[in-house]
What does this fold into?
Amino acid sequence: MKFSSEYRDASAAQGYAQEIRRITTQPWTIMEICGGQTHAIVKFGLDELLPKEIELVHGPGCPVCVTPLELIDKAVQIAQRPEVIFCSFGDMLRVPGSEIDLFGIKARGGDVRILYSPLDALKIAKENPSKQVVFFAVGFETTAPAHAMAVFQAKQQGITNFSVLVSHVLVPPAMEAILGSSSNRVQGFLAAGHVCAIMGYEEYIPIAAKYKVPIVVTGFEPLDILQGIAMCVAQLEQGRYEVENQYTRAVPAGGNRQAQHYVKEVFHVVNRKWRGIGEIGASGLSLRPEYAEFDAELRFNVGDYTAEESPLCISGLIMQGQKKPHECIAFGRQCTPEKPLGAPMVSSEGACAAYYRYRRAELATAGKV
It folds into this structure.
């Protein structure tokens, strides 16, 4: 890709929209998995280009949003310890815990640092041997290789004052949980292109066949998304249930084998709780026993902590495609970016944040906020 404008051409977008209108003969509900896709759809108004028969619903593909409340509370407990340098991607700092977020701990004097790579945390650990350096390892398959490499290098180099607080989740089990629900509305998926760049898309083939849903691996620019929708609708209209790859410029069928190697070396698959959704079997990653010395939950003895989510927050229903953000009674009222009830209002990939940022004035005019 030379220029992003290549994938934001208005006339080309209208062409895809016209093609979708031409081939659509009945209602279809399609879920985009990734929160990055959700933000592009809402920001550029892609859903408003589609025929009324096509409804886009928003999936659980925001790793910040699905990180359980108790994990945030564990992070807070660890970060406020005087001997700890707590490191994280920036979008985790505003995610609300039961009483306070990581940004609040930083404001109180806690050594909380925003990093762009967990490998930078290794450097900090080397430079501060008297401190315990913890990295908040959050993400889908996309960020797992970097976290795996950080832990792998820590073990190889004998860095003993480094650990990770792990909250990794996996996309395919979440898709199956949605499709297997009695309240499922999803008839087709736009799969997250960056996840597939790591893992490939072969693991989606049995899901498409089992549940009879088309799955289209899709990029994040407006033309990527519109083309992915067109491919998905074409399958639905023709009664096909296949895995197709729209994002060919970035995604090979087998993914990145070297990245997969390090993920399998350091992590193993476990059951994982998703915020607002509950536990999904075999949907997460945890450190293998041979790397348990780098597990922050064990190191700081916070493994048994539990917490209750706000009963006003319907983030789970939103991320399962059953509700839209503005259908929450707290949206824009009790829940705002300044005082969020749930992570989707503050995450850079959260559906609620997208609606609040790009649709709030429109919703207010319509009396929906």
